[in-house]
Specification:
mainly alpha
């Protein structure tokens, strides 16, 4: 069975294996960023790019602790992300990318012209759920900040990951794969939302979620 797996299935599974390893390393890098060990976080992200080149897009995480967004600014950015998703980022970017020689640009252009570039749409269950929690997280900033020290970092990381899931929805495979590169962001965001409820009511909300 091991022989059959490596002969028939390993090649197709290897992509997801590489991305899973890269995403796991980025989780470690995220923890280092929260501890202000930015140099080591950068090293970890570069190390993750050895498994999957798109890991380099996690480098902006290093600066997210220093960015403070107001509620209005965060809501505006969320709606801007959706506006770009409705328009279609592929239509906006590809005219500027034509003729580029960089590996990532070449791959994006090739994806756009085959089945990998098909639109996934915005009315998916995952998009709707993540959007609702994102809005709740933003609008409940004052209450969550009382209990959660790293609110601002995860707000910025949440919007950044949504940029790929939503704005790149017409570039299906790329957007989904980039969003999965940040597996720790939304579990933390969703868990943090429960800080809004009173202690006694959490026992009612959590089992029904």
């Amino acid at each position: 069975s091991i022989y059959v797996y490596f002969v028939l299935f390993f090649y197709t599974d290897s992509y997801f294996l590489r991305q899973s390893i890269a995403a796991s390393i980025i989780v470690v890098a995220t923890l280092l960023i929260l501890k202000n060990r930015l140099f080591f976080a950068c090293i970890m992200i570069l190390f993750a790019s050895g498994f999957h080149i798109i890991s380099l897009l996690a480098l902006p995480l290093i600066f997210f602790k220093k960015i403070k967004l107001s509620i209005k600014s965060a809501v505006f950015l969320l709606f801007l992300i959706y506006f770009i998703g409705i328009v279609g980022i592929t239509k906006l970017l590809l005219p500027f990318l034509q003729g580029g020689s960089f590996y990532a640009i070449d791959k994006l252009i090739r994806y756009s012209s085959n089945g990998f570039g098909e639109s996934l749409g915005l009315m998916r269950g995952s998009v709707i759920v993540f959007t609702l929690f994102s809005l709740f997280y933003i609008l409940s900033a004052k209450k969550i900040k009382v209990h959660f020290l790293h609110y601002d970092f995860f707000l910025n990381a949440m919007l950044y990951s949504l940029l790929f899931l939503v704005s790149f929805n017409d570039f299906g495979v790329f957007g989904e794969r980039m969003f999965r590169l940040f597996p720790v962001i939304f579990p933390v965001v969703i868990a943090s939302c429960f800080f809004v409820f009173e202690k006694n009511s959490k026992y009612v909300v959590i089992p029904s979620a």
